[in-house]
Give the backbone structure.
Amino acid sequence: MSFLQLTQGPLWYLASAVFVIGVAWRLIGLLRLGRGPDRSVARRSGVAGALKAIALHSVPHGGNLKRTIYHFVTGYGFHLGLFTLLFFAAPHVAFIKGLTGLSWTPLPRWGFLIAAEAAFAGLILMWLRRMTDPVMRRLSDADDHIATWLVFIVMLTGCLALQEAHDSLRALHLLCVEALMIYFPFSRLMHAFTFLVARAYTGATYGRRGVTP
Amino acid sequence: MKDLAETPPRKIDTQAAIDRFLAACNSHVGAYLDACIHCGQCSQACHFHEATQDPKYTPALKLQPMTRVYKRHKAPLSGIKRMFGLVPPELTAEYLQETEELIFQSCTMCGRCTEVCPMAIDVASVVALSRQAFVAAGLGPADLLQAAENSRDKGSPLGLTPEVLRDRIEWLSDDNEVEIPLDRDKAEVLVTVSSIEMMKYPDSIVAVARLMNAAGLDWTISTKGYEATNFGVLSGRSDIAKTMITRLTDAAESVGAKLLVIPECGHAYGAMRWSGANILGRPLPFEVLHITELVAKLIRDGKLKLKQAAESVTYHDPCQVSRRGGATGAAREILAAYSSDVREMTPSGNHNWCCGGGGGVQAMASAAALRHAVFQIKINQVEATGAKTFVSACANCRLTMDESREVLHWPREVQSLVEVLADRLEG
């Protein structure tokens, strides 16, 4: 079995299983912790509050944009770039088609370049901020740096493998992706899912009070 | 700030803190602790960070004591992570002492950080639960805890016993020629008081009485349950929190009240309106309104007639009434009836800056210097409006601001919204 076959076969299935089971385990485990009923008389709907909070916390509000503009620009640059690459880079579209049979129009090369530049710039700028800003330095731990570097390496190897000129580069990219997938459920990368739960809980609590925090 | 290390050594029960943290880790709290991405944006919304620019006051750091316990003992997959040594270290007495200031002196539980958090983490609720764990361990500021014990033993944090309440109501009633009903057998409305008002700002009580009488309400104050402030909630003493809620509930039930009115006190409103039924373990059999909500309703219903003033006024929103209470609009309705020149601070309403003394911080002598530093934000806000009159609807905010303005030599008066309103009553 070649290195590429290993990363496309057994390692891929192992990483996928860890990712799916791990994420599900964490989310179900979190929800199973439960919470007591809120016996206060609601002023407004908690469900509407949850939905509003999920939407509203995607953008700065409450007059805070100026204060958080760096995070807003770099955060959106990175996340939009990353998800555009993940779902619309030509090799990924082909990979998804191979897995699921589903297919859609991939990004043209210029689109790929813009998305990649936004993702790299956002990630690097966020990490620089983490290393230099006194608040972020104080908050950051090993998980923050490991997650950042893993994502960076995955994106870098992805770019190297773009031309599909060398199997070893594709295999290296896949290996890095698999490492990220295995690390994901154990790490703060889980915020990709838990952000919905946190926003919904706060939104529901304050929505009942007639406030959208 | 007073050096916390100067306090005498305390016996710290770390296991009690761990147990309390674990009991508090429900799905709600777990979601918050899992979702924090350490971006630090919350620091931009915190008045303690704003006033000092010290990163140690970053709200996300206040999650960390509970996060340690949750991620070590209770978080899903923590068992596997523990096998590889990837969980946080166990809580220690030293760590609890190091983080004590974050949980008590430097958090007013104002909720401003939640607004800016991309995950919408409600840091204030985690701090409230964390206080319970710290207190279980034997930590927490002595003066805050004493205020809670005074509430349990004497009826109020400031020594407002039922006898003192009776005496002061008699005095206020006589001196101001206003009827203040006390211990009526039956009444539609039970009015509660804040001992801060009764002991330091008694004119507020008179003003409330004038408004209630002018509207023709069937009301009373009760010596069975009168203290609206709840230092049990603020100090992390859940047993005392329940005692205070039970007293008010029993008093309201005994007079058959359909409405319980919370005076000008922010946290008292949150404690009774939003936490009361949950602390008590059953729904409250009466409606709870903040005094501003009631007065706004009375104005709306035409039961209070006011002579509108022309002088400019600005309003400080108590965090627990507005941002965390949802009664932001009530004060605006009152202000519109009071003056034709209402000048909002920037920011105001649900986005206001805290006075610096909420969450029991007002009662902590060790937090005084920090509070005063924070008050400069409010001074700047008020001055920018150019308004002549500066009002609020929380006696705790008022006391905090009065103390700080004296220290900072700011020559403005902080007035009570109900007091200025009562002065504008027609007839």
